[in-house]
Inverse folding.
């Protein structure tokens, strides 16, 4: 199964998380959304998509500019990760993940790596939730602290098992 870790990153934080995911998922390709095309991503069996959330709950600029409508996600397995700050952006915490999720579901993707607990976070609202759980790996580096790498490894293992 061909897998790509696809991320958008403005200041490098999401790229850093993507690199940690890649270190646990060696067989996956590593792709910056700003340097790829829908045609290239359409060739993969599975996509692990990552984004921070900007402004008032929008996607990161490179994801925003990407031609998402040209993506063929029908029956493709997808997983999501994102970073955000629950204190500064309590009303839009990791909404970028939710935006990618909504797009992917609408296009027929099969979501994996979802149903992650929200218990260590305090926020008002997030589009990155379904049925009271996060729909992917949601990270606030201030909350994760020393547990960041462990959280990423556990989630990556979950995703890998879902792709078998």
């Amino acid at each position: 199964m061909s897998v790509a870790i696809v991320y958008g990153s403005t200041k490098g934080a999401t790229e850093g998380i993507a690199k940690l995911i890649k270190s646990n998922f060696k067989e996956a390709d590593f792709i910056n959304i700003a340097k790829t095309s829908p045609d290239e991503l359409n060739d993969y069996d599975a996509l692990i998509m990552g984004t921070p959330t900007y402004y008032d709950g929008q996607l990161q600029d490179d994801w925003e500019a990407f031609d998402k409508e040209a993506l063929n996600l029908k029956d493709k397995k997808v997983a999501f990760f994102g970073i955000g700050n629950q204190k500064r952006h309590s009303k839009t915490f990791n909404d970028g993940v939710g935006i990618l999720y909504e797009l992917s579901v609408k296009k027929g993707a099969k979501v994996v790596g979802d149903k992650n607990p929200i218990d260590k976070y305090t926020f008002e609202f997030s589009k990155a939730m379904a049925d009271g759980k996060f729909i992917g790996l949601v990270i606030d580096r201030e909350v994760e602290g020393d547990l960041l790498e462990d959280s990423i490894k556990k989630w990556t293992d979950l995703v890998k098992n879902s792709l078998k």
